[in-house]
Amino acid sequence: MAEDGSTTDGAAPAGPPVRLDPALLDALGVAAGTPATLLQFSSAFCAPCRTTRRVLGEVAGMLDGVRHVEVDAESHLDAVRALGIWRTPTVLVVDARGEIVQRAAGVPAKAQVIAALAPLLPGGPDG
Asked: Which parts of the sequence belong to the Thioredoxin domain (predicted)?
C-alpha cells in the first residue's frame, strides 16, 4: 500500500474515508473501537490470499492496536457488493471510527502495510 492507498499492481487509492455501517462491521467480525483493523477479503483457492494472510498476520502480531480479520468473499456477497470488492485479495484498512482509510488489491509488502497503519496508531503521525 503506497501512501496514496495504491499497491504495486495499480489498484486505485481509497479516496476520502468511507464510514461503514456498524452492523456490517459487526457481521464481518470487526470489533468496534479497535485502533486499526486489516479487513482482508479472500477466496478459497486464492494463492495470493494465503500470502496476504501471512503478511497481515505478521504485522498485526507486531503492532499493538492492530487486528487482522479475514473474510471469505463468497460467504459475504452482500458485503462484497456493498464495498465494491472486485478481486481477492482485497484489504481494507478500517480505523477506530469504522472508516475505510485505505484499500488495496493484491499482495501488499509488509512495509506498505506498516506505513498505511502508522497514522492510526498511538505515536503515529496522526495517532
From this structure: 1-122
What are residue 18's phi and psi, to 5 degrees?
-115, 120
Exposure of 49 in the CB half-sphere (CA atoms within 13 A): 17
Residues composing the chain: 127
pLDDT (tens digit, 9 = 90+) per residue, 11-30?
444 466 778 888 999 999 99
H-only helix segments in 16-109: 22-28, 47-62, 77-83
Strand order in the sheet with 36-42: 18-19, 99-105, 90-95, 36-42, 66-72
> Which domains are assigned to the chain?
18-116 (3.40.30.10)
Per DSSP bridges, beta strands 90-95 and 18-19 are: unpaired
Burial of 123 (0-12, 13-18, 19+ CB in 10 A): exposed
